[in-house]
Amino acid sequence: MDVFSSLMDGFATALTPMNFLYAVIGVLLGTAVGVLPGLGPAMTVALLLPVTYVLEPTSAFIMFAGIYYGGMYGGSTTSILLNTPGESSSVVTAIEGNKMAKAGRAAQALATAAIGSFVAGTIGTALLAVFAPIVVKFAVSLGSPSYFAIMVLALLAVTAVLGSSRLRGFASLGLGLAIGLVGIDSVTGQRRLTFGQPLLADGLDIVVVAVAIFAVGEALWVAAHLRRNPLQVIPVGRPWMGKQDWKRSWKPWLRGTAFGFPFGALPAGGAEIPTFLSYVTEKRLSKHPEEFGHGAIEGVAGPEAANNAAAAGTMTPLLALGLPTNATAAVMLAAFTSYGIQPGPQLFSSQGPLVWALIASLFIGNFLLLIINLPLAPLWAKLLQLPRPYLYAGILFFATLGAYSVNLQAFDLVLLLVLGALGFMMRRFGLPVLPLILGVILGPRIEGQLRKTLQLSAGDPAGLWSEPIAIGVYIIIAIILIWPLLFKLIRRNRPATSLLSPNATRGNEPTDVARGNVTHGSQRGDATTDGDGDGDG
Amino acid sequence: MSSSPTLASRLKGRSELGVALLLGAVGVLVLVDAIALVTPYSKSDPVGPKTLPYLVAGLLIVCAVLLAINVLRGGQGEAEGGEDVDLTHPADWKTVLPLVGAFVANILLIDWAGWVISGTILFWGSAWALGSRHYIRDGIISVGMSVLTFYGFYLGLGIPLPAGLLEGVL
After folding, report:
1. Which residues, at least 6 apart from A239, have a Cβ–Cβ distance to it below 8 Å?
2. Using one digit for the tens of pLDDT, what is the confidence trace for A394-444?
3. Is the pLDDT of residue A527 over 60?
4. Alpha-helix residue ranges (DSSP H) falling in A140-237
5. Distance between CA atoms of B14 and A467, rounded to whole angstroms?
6. Rounded CA separation B3/B17 (Å)
7. If pLDDT is split at 50, 70 and 90, which confidence band does A269 have?
8. d(C-alpha A445, C-alpha A433), whole Å
9. Mind telling me how many Å the CA of B137 is from chain A's nearest CA?
10. Does the N-terminal or the C-terminal CB of chain A have fewer CB atoms within 10 Å?
11. Is the dihedral of CA A200, A206, A208, A209 positive or negative?
12. Under 8 Å CB-to-CB from A467, ≥6 apart: which residues?
């Protein structure tokens, strides 16, 4: 079957009344948790996992897809109206978006974010539909050595590239891998790290770990530093754009999409780097560079498109290789496994209808987001005023409920509290959360591939690099690991260059990013402003 | 003798060393646990269940040492910001501890008293800890949410949350 007819079948599945209803629920729920501080799509999917066990897997994943895209969309609303972005991927949107809102142009900022998200999401999903089968064709030829290498790459890249401190990233990864070790070893039946406790023999449930780190850790952390005087939410009417806004937005949307999709599809891509690149590019290409820093619409349109295209890009390695590159994808991978579905190249052949229904529902979710959320924007703005005691009490309430309903045992709640305290500590001392989650989920898989590889080579370590792809991946890993050393060397030789290190994108205050751009832009601005043929013709 | 005051002053404000200590402790724990595993060498599984734990333990211990050095040299992890996070004031334990208290109360009560009662205490206690002083309104919301989720899970999802003391009433 070719892509198009498979996709049409997918639409037929996704548009049945029940599945369509789940898509609507997912989109609304996703936007709500994206808007609300302290919640995110990864945690929401984790919380809903036990609840969705009664559903058909297809319906559950259609809902998860809606939550994923909705969460991305909701994050931009918060950053535009509040100026303190919750998700790191909306940091860049906040720079110009909040300035626009303060200047009375919140409606236009929300509109360009929503329509840009729709454009980027639709193109991104189309690219996913085209590229995922191609990646699958390539991936079925890969053996365990290559998978082992690719998974190690994904772990190391997330740990080493994102975040402001690599050391703390690796510390977080180590903790995650250790959590992933707990339980009976599937090959030999040995109990690892169970301390004679039978309740630990099945390992730590990923729902409990994810909910503890994301929800309980966050609630405790916020409780310790709760803002005394609530932030001002900028009131907003129905989003709309004038002709001039459209003219200034459509190219940033397309360029943002071009940045977002490939980065989302790469291991450790995520949305931080492409949104940042999109911002810098728009600033350089803009006909109104003086408006940047005071609310330039291009600075909202581009990064928002990049953000959503990256979300679509993330689905490519998840569906084609079973490789998650961000927290939501990691939890979705756990969801696949808990339904007894093995993600990876076989997924398209063994679960074809499910995968194509999922891809179709991504298109539908995107469309729903646009038509539902443009009129609902004032309502979402109201949601931001929910009293914080209720919000965080509610998060703890549902976290408890979600974790308890997996096995109906109070012991899971003890784990929830202990791991929640770990999440608190990580936030306090700047340990990134993502490496831990990926470590928990990918650790056991990496071990499985390692054992398979050495089983095939009869214990000869040379089996690890017996496939050309594996060798290529190890070279990339080496480059990632020694890159900071090279970087230091280059800087020492040429102290005048002030290039931004890729590590500086996350964890910086928006103002720092903006300041960094000023120097960056002024260095190269002269060379590119008139020479580029991309102006309005 | 002379080194102790400098050591004390060095340790002051370096609570992050606790993180290094935790990493090291987990690393040693993983290592000890892995050593205790007894597995005969098998041809079908040359890697065995010990390899990954050894690697993880190594990673954790190395991270612990490097982090300790980093912190003693003045390095600092960046505390995470957020919409509702105000990092200008120090950690407010008067909020966190009652919150943890409400959570622990729920753990202790859930199987005996049932979800409706323990969930009510959890929500009401958390809202109180976080500064809400609308006792009656909070109470109504707490009971409402607990009862709704109880029936929602039971009727909608077929998950029987414990009824506890209210068994027969619900």
Report:
1. A107, A108, A110, A111, A114, A374, A377
2. 999 999 998 998 888 999 999 999 999 999 999 999 899 889 999 999 999
3. no
4. 144-161, 166-181, 206-211, 217-224
5. 47
6. 19
7. low
8. 19
9. 11
10. C
11. positive
12. A142, A143, A145, A146
Output the pLDDT for position A494: 65
The pLDDT of residue A498 is above 50: no
Quick check: B52 and A228 CB within 8 A? no
Q: Which residue has the tokens 């080579």?
A: A457
| pLDDT digit string, tens, across residues A204-243 | 888 899 999 988 999 999 999 988 776 777 777 778 888 8
- Is residue A73 within 8 A of residue A120, CB to CB? The reply is no
- CA angle, A220 then A397 then B79, to 5°: 15
Q: Which chain A residues contact residue B86 at CB under 8 A?
A: 225-228
Chain A residue nearest residue B52, CA to CA:
A447
Buried/exposed A441-479: b ≥16 CB within 10 Å, e otherwise: bbbbbbbbbbbbbbbebeeeeebbebbebbeebbeebee
Residues 110-149 of B with CB under 8 A from A: 110-111, 115, 119, 122-124, 126-132, 138, 141, 145, 149
Contact A389 B132 (CB under 8 A): yes
Q: Contact A82/B83, CB-based, under 8 Å?
A: yes
ipTM of the complex: 0.91
Q: Give residue A85's pLDDT band: very low, low, confident or very high (50, 70, 90).
A: low
- Rounded Cα distance, A211 and A218, in Å: 10
Span A327-345, average pLDDT = 86
pLDDT digits (tens, 9 = 90+) for A344-356: 888 888 888 999 9
This prediction has a pTM of 0.85
* A window 29-58, beta carbon within 8 A of B: 37-38, 50-51, 54
Q: Is the pLDDT of residue B74 over 90?
A: no
Model pLDDT, residue B10: 60
Residue type, A276: F
Residue window 47-76, chain B: list those with CB within 8 Å of chain A: 47-49, 51-53, 56, 59-60, 63-64, 66-67, 70, 75-76
* DSSP one-letter string for A498-537: -PPPGGGSSS--HHHHHHHHHHHHHHHHHHHHTT-TTS--
Q: Distance between CA B72 and CA B66 in Å, rounded?
A: 10
Distance, CA of A42 to chain centre:
8
Per-residue 3-state assignment (H helix, E strand, C coil) for A376-438:
HHHHHHHHCCCCHHHHHHHHHHHHHHHHHHHHCCHHHHHHHHHHHHHHHHHHHCCCCCHHHHH
- What is the SS3 assignment for A233-277? CCCCCCCCCCHHHHHHHHHHHHHHHHHHHHHHHCCCCCCHHHHHH
Token pair listed for A295: 């609310």
First to last CA, chain A: 42
User: Which residues, including other chains, have CB under 8 Å from residue B39's CB and lie 6 or more apart?
Assistant: A188, A190, B48, B49, B50
Torsion sign, CA atoms A256, A259, A265, A267: negative
Chain A residues in contact with B104 (beta carbon < 8 A): 417
> How many angstroms separate the CA atoms of A479 and A397, rounded?
45
Strand partners, A191: A184
If one counts every other C-beta atom within 10 angstroms of the C-beta of residue A138, the result is 13
Show the tokens assigned to B24: 């090291």
**Cβ–Cβ of A220/B22 closer than 8 Å?**
no
